[in-house]
């Protein structure tokens, strides 16, 4: 009745190494997760995961099944292999989609058509109509889809949401957010897919803060303008290295969002990120201020072990860290882990609940779980976060038109369009 859930991770890159695999390993040793498979384009990232000393130290004796096999020469590519792996899974297990943004739609759809629950890294997809299609397909099959907007699980975000619900701040009117990732990203696999025609820093990381403002306030964005600054990756590909976005909300509030792949590699932090929001009340104003890159913890190591090998580090203990615990090795803690665990635990809870039911009753109960999670709004789902896809569409329309504002129209036929000035 409490059978573990098998997990297949599609994508073996940075987010799988830094967050997803350690989180899944810990869920495996607590009994929630059973078999673990990881599928990648070739064997190189899988070899890196298998040989990661920090992961091996934290999770002694644990391993995964690699697709393709670790013995396969790295030059051999298998772009369709994930379809075979998903087709071979028992029904209603879990698939984690950890691919570049432009591949999310086809992999998530393949997982659902293979009768699998899904956890997808953000954003779910790049078009609103795709989000609606996947939402409908998942509900039809009674399959859960969670989206890894992990800032929703940050305790400061949850605290801000509670105080906002109680009316302690007033009405949001003005804010700014920032997320600058390390310059070293430019030398990673980013240079192969983070090109101007595919994505930009606002879409890739700015979406976290746009989702978070709506998570806290419930306000929907109605207009987006994004200006980008281009640069060249080491391999010669051109991409947007920097982006500045302005988001206008349905009540007239404005959020400025600065993003980039340019935090100094010699800097003390692994990135720079923050959120400030101002509110209007009766003769008073309110404020939320989150300095997310620095949480009062500094370390200076004998040798450089920071993101880029720096010795002095601003340490964020709240997102993801490996710490001692009562079991073997180390365990992951932080809202990054909790976000991954929330969706996998929900999938496990659903399947445990329906284990003894006939198929018709099981389907109805699974749909009940899905709709209840949609309404709760803590785990991001296609239903409670799909305005983010409209934001992504509007942002791409804007940045590819030199920062011209793009409007979002809701109603019966939600869509985006370039703003016309008279």
List keywords for this structure.
single chain, 422 residues, alpha/beta, Rossmann fold, Dihydrodipicolinate Reductase, domain 2, 2 domains, eight-stranded mixed beta sheet, six-stranded parallel beta sheet, 13 helices, 18 strands
Could you characterize what this model shows?
By secondary structure, this protein is an alpha/beta fold. The chain folds into 2 domains: 5-151 and 326-382, 3-Layer(aba) Sandwich (Rossmann fold); 155-315, Dihydrodipicolinate Reductase, domain 2 (2-Layer Sandwich), CATH 3.30.360. It is 35% helix and 27% strand. It has helices spanning 14-29, 44-50, 53-58, 81-87, 104-113, 128-141, 155-165, 190-193, 201-217, 335-353, 359-376, 382-385, 387-399; strands at residues 5-10, 33-39, 65-67, 94-97, 117-121, 145-148, 171-182, 221-232, 238-249, 254-263, 272-280, 285-291, 298-300, 312-314, 321-324, 330-333, 406-409, 415-418. It has an 8-stranded mixed β-sheet. Strands 3-2-1-4-5-6 form a 6-stranded parallel β-sheet, sandwiched between helices. Helix 1 (14-29) links the parallel strand 1 (5-10) and strand 2 (33-39). It is globular. The termini are far apart. The model has no long low-confidence stretch (mean pLDDT 95).
């Amino acid at each position: 009745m409490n059978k573990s859930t098998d997990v297949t991770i599609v994508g073996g890159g940075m987010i799988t190494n830094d967050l997803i695999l350690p989180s899944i390993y810990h869920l495996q040793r607590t009994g929630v997760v059973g078999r673990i498979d990881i599928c990648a384009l070739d064997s190189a990232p899988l070899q890196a995961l298998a040989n990661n000393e920090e992961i091996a130290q934290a999770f002694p004796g644990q391993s995964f099944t690699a697709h393709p096999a670790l013995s396969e020469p790295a030059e051999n590519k298998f772009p369709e292999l994930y379809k075979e792996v998903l087709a071979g899974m028992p029904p209603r297990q879990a698939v984690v989609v950890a691919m570049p943004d432009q591949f999310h739609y086809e992999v998530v759809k393949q997982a659902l058509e293979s009768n699998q629950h899904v956890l997808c890294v953000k954003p779910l997809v790049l078009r609103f109509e795709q989000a609606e299609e996947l939402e409908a397909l998942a509900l039809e099959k009674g399959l859960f889809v969670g989206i890894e907007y992990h800032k929703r699980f940050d305790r400061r975000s949850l605290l801000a949401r509670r105080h906002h619900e109680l009316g302690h701040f007033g009405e949001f009117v003005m804010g700014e957010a920032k997320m600058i990732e390390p310059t070293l990203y430019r030398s990673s696999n980013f240079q192969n897919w983070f090109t101007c025609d595919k994505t930009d820093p606002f879409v890739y990381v700015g979406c976290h803060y746009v989702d978070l403002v709506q998570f806290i306030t419930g306000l929907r964005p109605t207009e987006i303008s994004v200006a980008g600054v281009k640069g060249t990756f080491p391999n010669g590909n051109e991409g947007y290295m920097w982006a500045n976005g302005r988001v206008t909300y349905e009540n007239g509030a404005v959020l400025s969002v600065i993003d980039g792949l340019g935090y100094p590699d010699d800097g003390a932090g692994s990135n720079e990120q923050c959120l400030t929001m101002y509110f209007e009340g009766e003769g008073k104003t309110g404020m939320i201020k989150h300095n997310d890159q620095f949480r009062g913890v500094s370390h200076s190591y004998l040798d450089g072990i920071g993101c880029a090998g720096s010795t002095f580090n601003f340490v964020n203990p709240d997102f993801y860290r490996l710490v001692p615990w009562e079991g073997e090795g180390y365990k992951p803690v932080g809202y990054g882990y909790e976000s991954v665990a929330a969706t996998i635990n929900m999938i496990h809870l659903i399947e445990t609940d329906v284990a003894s039911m006939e198929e018709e009753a099981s389907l109805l109960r699974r749909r009940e779980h899905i709709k209840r999670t949609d309404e709760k709004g803590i785990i991001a789902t296609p239903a409670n976060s799909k305005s983010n896809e409209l934001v992504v569409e509007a942002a791409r329309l804007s940045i590819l038109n030199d920062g011209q504002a793009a409007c979002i129209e809701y109603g019966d036929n939600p869509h985006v369009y370039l703003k016309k000035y008279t």
